[in-house]
Amino acid sequence: MMKCLTGALILLLSAVLAGCAKTGEAVEAVELDEKIEQGSEVIITVGERKITHDKLYSRLYSLFGEEVLSQMIEELLVLEEADSRGLEIDESEVERELGFIKEDFADEENYSRFLIQEGLTEEELKRRIRVELMKNEMVKSDYDIEVTENEIEDYFEENKERLSAPRQVRLAHILLNNESEAELVYTSIKAGADFDKMAEAKSEDEETAGSGGDIGYFSQEMLNEEISGVVFALNKGEVSRPVRTRRGWHVMKVKDITEEREAELDSELERNIRAAILNSKINRKYPGWIESIKDDYIK
Among 20, 54, 62, 103, which lies 20 to 30 A Cα-Cα from 155? Predict the structure, then answer.
């Protein structure tokens, strides 16, 4: 028995279409603006003009609505198809993938900062992971997608230089507005003041001040010339004299150093390569797959 998303789609579209037309006649833009303003809560008033929730929603929809709506529909299609197949993703698989994501961050604070910047909670991230795993499993199954050992070895040889890890430094910084402030901070640290506490008290970078100014790991190519030339000449634990950039004056500390490593096809890299090849194959098949199931659910 085929399931249908008609009701869900109507709910998604009704908020967009509500108030945009009257039976038998077109609504002028001015009339629509008045109708929205009269029937919506005011967010802010600027002079005699008002911004309402509906006006904000209308503007956001005109900019991003089609893309977001398409993503929402595709997500519902994946969930419906998974339900029809009785496909469930074990929580341990979700947690494993979440662990891989967390490995990309220097510590829990940087991971938390990523969630805030993306407007995500961890539960929402896990929900997205679950949907992605469902999609991957179904596309992989329907197209008999596999990754061979030869494909992994070929990929490694072709990308060996790129896969090698360059020398990296883990940096913390204290951002100041002017040189004199930066010199005072530098002098205090050299005299024995704690760098982390100085960052918390003095840094203009509000995002990192609370974590001792930690900004993570960088290779030389990732930094601008003003900073890279200074910090890559320091040893672990050393603090730089103030460095000027467009943002202001920085006092930098090298918290850790990882030396350059040539890539080796160990179990972890093999897993990553296998996943990269698999995802590439799945992504190539996905547009055709999602189109093939639409008729079962959208009327």
Answer: 103
Cα Rg for the chain, rounded, in angstroms? 26
pLDDT band, residue 226 (cuts 50/70/90): confident
User: What does the pLDDT read at residue 109?
Assistant: 87
Other C-beta atoms closer than 10 Å to the C-beta of 159 total 13
- 24, pLDDT greater than 80: no
* Distance spanning both ends of the chain, measured CA to CA: 14
Q: In whole angstroms, give the CA distance from residue 59 to residue 43.
A: 14
The yes-or-no verdict on residue 77 having pLDDT over 50 is: yes
Q: Go through the domains of the chain in sequence order and give each one's CATH number.
A: 1-84 (no CATH), 165-258 (3.10.50.40)
Q: pLDDT per residue over 247-289, tens digit each?
A: 999 999 999 999 998 999 999 899 999 999 999 999 999 999 9
